[in-house]
């Protein structure tokens, strides 16, 4: 979803929560429900990728030589 790439994680999560709430009510016409479901899948994928990227960034550290290392590799040596 091109618009998801421009939004923040929190905005995507809020939209996803609204879609889920709307669909759980069960009074959404079928075509609208399918559109909302597809949008929700795209938002979910965007959020998952954003979280994975954040996790990868947070698990790296920079050593004395300026090289990136995984945090877990460094802590196993101690």
UniProtKB/TrEMBL annotation:
Keyword Cytoplasm found: yes
A Pfam family hit: Exonuc_VII_S
One MF term in the entry's GO annotations: exodeoxyribonuclease VII activity
Major location (coarse): cytoplasm
Gene3D superfamilies (alphabetical): Exonuclease VII, small subunit
Reactions mediated catalytically: Exonucleolytic cleavage in either 5'- to 3'- or 3'- to 5'-direction to yield nucleoside 5'-phosphates
Keywords in alphabetical order: Cytoplasm, Exonuclease, Hydrolase, Nuclease
Function: Bidirectionally degrades single-stranded DNA into large acid-insoluble oligonucleotides, which are then degraded further into small acid-soluble oligonucleotides.
Protein name: Exodeoxyribonuclease 7 small subunit
Organism whose genome encodes this protein: Carnobacterium alterfunditum
